[in-house]
Design a protein that fits this description.
Helix content is 35%, strand content 0%. The protein is built from two helices and no strands.
Length: 57
């Protein structure tokens, strides 16, 4: 959840800069490629989709 900074007409640029400096820096992106192919489901994804969609008919 983000932080709310309330500003009004009397807020100066320096006050706003101080509040913005208090915010945490962005985190580095996570490399999701290292997790690719690690989970084995035991069934082909396409076969599972076709089977589950056939059950609706």
């Amino acid at each position: 959840m983000g932080k709310v900074i309330e500003i009004d007409k009397t807020t100066t640029r320096s006050q706003l800069d101080k509040e913005l400096d208090k915010l945490p820096n962005k985190k580095d992106p996570i490399d999701l490629n290292k997790y690719f192919g690690k989970v084995k489901f035991g069934v082909d994804g396409l076969e599972y989709q076709l089977k589950s969609r056939d059950e609706w008919r």
